Structure to design on (183 residues):
């Protein structure tokens, strides 16, 4: 959905693109089949050459957990136990640990294959949390869209991927509902 791109800064953009491999409005899923998923991973410099069907299921489960986390960013609510379990298990499988690099501390995924690819996504998520920008990555409130977007609003109160598209649709629908109730 190129008309609704709200890129996120730095590595968080990778997480946004990963969440958007599922396009509700267009009815497409870049992770629907092993070959498509391998292509997406390759295009995003992630290891997935030997992706199996079981690993594809693991990848889509992680994507749904990340999308749940992005939905929670709207309300600042707590993540479900299931979402936390998926993310924590994926972090453990990726063997993410801090490493000193000169005077900096960097998170590193020591796993290879799909666990390493997932680790790269989780590291970007963790780095965004540490930088205080994670809560700006959200899922569009429009139920027919649900596109992941980076909220650049000053008050961090953005609800839609695009005010001119989803925001306008939502407001028009509410207007019609109010006026049909008055009739």
């Amino acid at each position: 959905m190129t008309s609704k791109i709200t890129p996120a800064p730095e590595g968080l953009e990778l997480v946004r693109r990963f969440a958007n491999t599922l396009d509700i409005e267009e009815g497409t899923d870049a992770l629907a089949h092993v070959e498509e998923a391998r292509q997406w991973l390759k295009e995003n410099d992630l290891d997935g050459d030997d992706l199996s069907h079981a690993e594809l299921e693991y990848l889509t489960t992680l994507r749904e957990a990340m999308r749940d986390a992005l939905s929670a960013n709207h309300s600042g609510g707590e993540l479900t136990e299931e979402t936390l379990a998926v993310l924590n298990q994926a972090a453990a499988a990726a063997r993410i640990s801090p490493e000193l690099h000169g005077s900096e501390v960097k998170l590193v995924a020591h796993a290879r294959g799909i666990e390493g690819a997932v680790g790269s996504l989780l590291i970007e998520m963790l780095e965004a949390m540490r930088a205080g920008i994670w809560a700006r990555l959200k899922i569009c409130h429009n139920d027919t869209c649900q596109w992941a977007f980076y909220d650049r609003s000053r008050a961090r109160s953005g609800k839609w991927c695009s005010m001119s598209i989803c925001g306008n649709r939502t407001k028009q629908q509410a207007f019609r509902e109010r006026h049909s109730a008055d009739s």
About this structure: The first helix runs from residue 12 to 19.
